[in-house]
Amino acid sequence: MKIVALDIGTVRIGVAASDIMEIIASAYTVYRRKDFKSDIKAIADIINNLQAGQVVIGLPLKMDGSEGQSVEMARNFGEELSNLVSVPIVYQDERLSTVTAQKILIESGMRREKRKDKVDSLAATIILQTYLDKRSNMKDNK
Questions:
Q1: Which of 53, 61, 81, 112 has minimal Cβ neighbours within 10 Å of its Cβ?
Q2: Mutual orientation of helices 97-107 and 112-140 as an angle, nearest 10°?
Q3: CATH of 2-140, one of 3.50.50.60, 3.30.420.140, 3.40.630.30, 3.40.50.720
């Protein structure tokens, strides 16, 4: 089944999807936010169109592991999204995913203007790949 990951920001939502074997994460799109109700509907449509079997939402924990306002926003988004999609929603620690995405794009030589459009979907890809790798390692250790 495909798994979709979301990097939820205040301006944009990065979306990534796995292959059906649940091995490789790829950037899918960046959704520019409008208003909460429209955002939830648009993301639910993406999830349904991709026929995802699960959704992973990045949880922006603080560096010390505590939760702040951004975590509350991500959880609220997930709760509302669960009313429109019939697949499990899980949360994945996303600390430093955006920083890592920025670093990758800078090292690739991408100009600042283009990085803005790519960083969120790349961050979602990093969140999803981390989740997939963690699951794979847990299966291997059984």
A1: 112
A2: 120
A3: 3.30.420.140
